[in-house]
Design brief:
The protein has 131 residues and is mostly beta strands. Helix content is 0%, strand content 50%. Strands 1, 3, 4, 6, 7, 9 and 10 form a seven-stranded antiparallel sheet that branches.
Length: 131
């Protein structure tokens, strides 16, 4: 499957929680970032990334200029059906633990795309994390 590449340099990290006195600012390492190309006639796609926080944190929102809406989603089975739902309380990022957003699991959903995404295109996504 062809995927869009989101270089880590283009994934903008912003809004990590404010440190207490004598406490370091939280950082989030980003790796393995990709988005799926848009299917014909569709204005949605999923993006995947691995996040590693320097201290306990929580991914609470995402946004992308090319999408009308972006959400952090989980896949779960309910009534023997696979469902995709927004993680309204965000996604826990435990200190030093790699958290993979991947196909069939937690992922970033871009909806209301302003244009189709094609393989090789770069996508800018901003996330907000907060303890």
């Amino acid at each position: 499957m062809t995927r869009l590449i989101i270089p880590a340099a283009l994934l903008i990290l912003a809004g990590c929680s404010q440190p207490f006195a004598n406490e370091a600012v939280a950082t989030v390492e980003v790796s393995d970032a990709t988005c799926r190309p848009t299917l014909n006639g569709r204005d949605v796609t999923a993006c995947f990334v691995t996040l590693t926080a320097s201290r306990d944190d929580r991914l609470v929102s995402v946004s992308a200029p090319l999408a009308g809406m972006a959400q952090v989603h989980e896949m779960k089975i309910e009534d023997n059906m696979m469902k995709m739902v927004e993680l309204k309380d965000g996604l826990t990022l435990a200190a030093g633990e790699a958290v993979a957003l991947k196909p069939g699991g937690n992922h970033i959903m871009l909806m209301g795309l302003k244009q189709p995404l094609v393989a090789g295109e770069q996508v800018s996504i901003t996330h907000r994390a907060s303890v």
